TrEMBL record:
This is FAD-binding PCMH-type domain-containing protein. Belongs to the oxygen-dependent FAD-linked oxidoreductase family. Residues 1-24 form the signal peptide. Its cofactor is FAD. Keywords: FAD, Flavoprotein, Glycoprotein, Signal. Residues 74-250 form the FAD-binding PCMH-type domain. InterPro entries: BBE (IPR012951), FAD-bd_PCMH (IPR016166), FAD-bd_PCMH-like_sf (IPR036318), FAD-bd_PCMH_sub1 (IPR016167), FAD-bd_PCMH_sub2 (IPR016169), Oxid_FAD_bind_N (IPR006094). GO terms for molecular function: FAD binding; oxidoreductase activity.
Length: 528
């Protein structure tokens, strides 16, 4: 069903009356939205413009919601969702938004842990969402080992396409197949091939971007400063429509294993030893740990055969007790299924499943570890926080290898020289304030327990594990306050934060692309 701008205008006025927001400012906001919709209608088909007055709105909004905390009553929802199918739709939305004071949030897969791609903390915020799910084309050039990938394409779709095109081509990216390219690469993109080939962002060759002026730019026209910023700077500089990436070579056969050790089987000792061993293993070997009551799961991907892996493990980590019987030799594309689902029994087509019925609430904390956490601390954490059935997991991802050999300033992602990254997850299914407070208190409590042993001055947090506990933006004049943004920004980006702000000042000085944790323009007084 489509709705004329006039009918939508009446609908919005009714909402304002029901909300008691019959002030002149709300009337002005409604007028801006009405004008914004009229502007969109000149160049975008009505079927692609979804408002609260259309039957399609709720289904589209929920299609990429991965955290039910941000669709609870009281959460600000977009006044419009534009389901772009071509670059011109994105350009029109940006230009109309600027003209009529409607800010844009861009959503590719909706995996932002704090929902900033489709929701706002400010109940009075008026914003539109640009949904890029249909900008998902994948073009693979196997001969050149390159690919163009739309921001709306999922990692699973790329992995599936690579498996069909060439058994020895891969791309270093994350384990969750429903994560989409746009958000993943804009934050860096860590995955099981990072120790061998670096982050996703380290393998970007070009990109197509719509900037704050509505211009369509590529690497040669955007300049190297903006090209640097979009590869890990968190998506504050424009709308990236597609990415040209370097594909990497992998053997036709790789090896995976999953070994479970319980707490009464020396799991704590093994985790303690893993901290020094895993980052120093050969680059071809990625060994993750998932810690959850009552066990620790050691999950590996090795770019080689089982026999060689068994010899490496016997020499470097004999206490784990890995044998040839633990191995499964499979293709690389099958390994992406194993890393996510802990089984090779699922068909490759599971990588294409984009269906999403949000059914859980989520809060995540993350950090980086420079020196191994002592055994007594792991014992304390386990006894205090992980000793109840059903407690959420702590995930440990090793760095080292290629990660440590790339300069922290090569891309905005600066956390190159740590032993490993850890994430503490809390997810729950029951609704209500009591459950929310209990679960969020749990994850914050675990993180506080870890505080003496993780990064400090500042804390080192991966922007793709966004955490609003770190701080949120405020305004200084009509742009985001640089000093307030530094509170959270230097935790994500360290010394790269100021450079990102300088790029923002250059490409979006009026701060059009703005959210609760967007990069601010660098003030003139802060320039060197």
């Amino acid at each position: 069903m489509t709705t004329t701008p006039r009918i939508l205008h009446l609908f919005l006025l009714i909402l304002c009356v029901l909300s008691g927001q019959t002030t002149s400012s709300s009337s002005s906001a409604s007028s801006d939205i009405d004008a914004f919709l009229g502007c969109l209608s000149a160049d975008i088909p009505p079927r692609l413009v979804h408002t609260p007055a259309t039957n399609s709105y709720n289904a589209l909004l929920l299609s990429s919601v991965r955290n039910l905390r941000y669709v609870l009553p009281g959460t600000a929802r977009p006044v419009v969702i534009v389901a772009a199918t071509e670059p011109a739709h994105v350009q029109t939305t940006v230009l109309c938004g600027r003209r009529h004071s409607v800010r844009i949030r861009t959503r590719s897969g909706g995996h932002d842990y704090e929902g900033l791609s489709y929701a706002s903390l400010d109940p009075g915020q008026r914003f539109a969402v640009l949904d890029l799910a249909e900008l998902r084309a994948i073009h693979i050039d196997a001969a050149r080992a390159e690919a163009w990938v739309g921001s709306g394409a999922s990692l699973g779709e790329l992995y599936y396409a690579l498996g069909a095109a060439n058994r020895t081509l891969a791309f270093p990216a994350g384990s969750c197949p429903t994560v989409c390219f746009g958000g993943h690469l804009s934050g860096g993109g860590f995955g099981s091939l990072a120790r061998k080939y670096g982050l996703s962002a380290d393998n970007v060759l070009d990109a197509v971007v719509v900037d704050a002026q509505g211009r369509l730019l590529n690497r040669s026209t955007m300049g190297e400063d903006l090209f640097w910023a979009i590869r890990g700077g968190g998506g504050s500089f424009g709308v990236v429509l597609s990415w040209k990436v370097r594909l990497v070579r992998v053997p036709e056969t790789v090896t995976v294993f999953g070994i479970r050790r319980f707490r009464n089987q020396s799991a704590v000792d093994l985790i303690t030893r893993w901290q020094d061993i895993a980052p120093a293993l050969p680059r071809d070997l990625y060994l993750r740990v998932l810690v959850q009551n009552p066990q620790a799961d050691f999950v590996a991907l090795f770019l080689g055969r089982c026999g060689r892996l068994a010899r490496i493990m016997q020499r470097r980590f004999p206490d784990l007790g890995m044998t040839r019987a633990d191995c499964q030799e499979i293709s690389w594309v099958q390994s992406t299924i194993f890393i996510e689902f802990f089984t090779t029994a699922k068909p490759l087509e599971v990588l294409l499943d984009r269906s999403n019925k949000p059914d859980y609430y989520l809060k995540v904390k993350s950090d980086h570890v420079q020196e191994a956490i002592p055994r007594h601390a792991w014992e304390s954490i386990w006894a205090k926080w992980l000793d109840e059935p059903g407690t959420p997991p702590i995930m440990l991802d090793p760095y080292g290898g290629r990660m440590g050999s790339i300069s922290p300033s090569a891309t905005p992602f600066p956390h190159r020289n740590y032993l490993y990254q850890l994430q503490v997850y809390s997810f729950w299914f029951e609704n209500g304030t009591e459950a929310l407070e209990k679960r969020i208190s749990w994850v914050r409590g675990v993180h506080e327990e870890l505080e003496p042993y993780v990064s400090r001055n500042p804390r080192a947090v991966y922007v793709n594990y966004r955490d609003l506990d770190l701080g949120t933006n405020g305004l200084e004049g009509n742009v985001t306050s640089y000093e307030k943004a530094r509170v959270w920004g230097e935790k994500y980006f360290k010394g790269n934060f100021k450079r990102l702000a300088a790029v923002k000042r250059k490409v979006d000085p009026h701060d059009f692309f703005r959210n609760e944790q967007s990069i601010p323009p660098l003030p003139a007084a802060a320039k060197e």
